[in-house]
Amino acid sequence: TALKVAIQAGNKELLRYLLNKGVDINNPYAKQRGKTALRAASTAIGGYIGIACLLLDKGTDINAAVAKEQRRTALEGVAEHGRIDMIQLLLNAGAELKGSGKAQYERAVKLARSNGHYATARLIQSHCG
Questions:
Q1: Sign of CA dihedral 34, 11, 25, 54
Q2: Do 27 and 36 form a contact (C-beta atoms < 8 A)?
Q3: Is 95 helix (H, G, I), strand (E, B) or coil?
Q4: Which domains does the chain have, with CATH numbers?
Q5: Closest alpha carbon to 32 in 4, 57, 63, 2
Q6: What DSSP letter does each residue of 32-94 carry, written as one string?
Q7: Backbone angles phi, psi at 30, to 5 degrees
Q8: For a tag site, which of 2, 21, 26, 67 has the least CB within 10 Å?
Q9: How far apart are the first and last CA of the chain?
């Protein structure tokens, strides 16, 4: 989709255009992987902070359900790849770590540790208290 192309290319101008046209940023754009726009922008491959900020400003669901194929939330995906900058952004924006977000918290810490991203795991843990 055009949304996917804009995000993967890190093209903020195209993304702004699509948002102004009413594209649904919370609709999973990949039928098999189930990625939402925020999960795509949050991946370590892209790591587009500006795109993620724009999506957050437009009301994207930071705690969207896990992707169907890879079974990762946005927070879990960036934790897996050790993206401390994106982790901090998502935590500041309200990524859930307690209550219904406890499983997300546990998986994010586990994914970070299993990939040797101990600073990322500690950041998530410190945010949770």
A1: positive
A2: yes
A3: coil
A4: 1-61 (1.25.40.20), 70-129 (1.25.40)
A5: 4
A6: TT---HHHHHHSTTT--HHHHHHHHHTT--TTPPPPTTT---HHHHHHHTT-HHHHHHHHHTT
A7: -115, 115
A8: 21
A9: 40
- List the structure tokens of 55: 């999506």
| Residue 36, token pair as written in the block | 């939402």
Which tokens belong to 113? 């540790």
pLDDT tens series, the chain, 129 aa: 788 888 888 888 999 999 999 988 887 665 555 667 777 776 655 678 888 898 899 888 888 776 566 677 888 888 999 989 999 999 999 999 998 889 889 999 999 999 999 999 999 999 986
Distance CA 127, CA 109 (A): 12
Contacts for 119 with CB less than 8 Å, ≥ 6 apart: 82, 84
DSSP label of 21: T
Q: Give the pLDDT confidence score for residue 101 in this predicted structure.
A: 86
Residues in the chain: 129
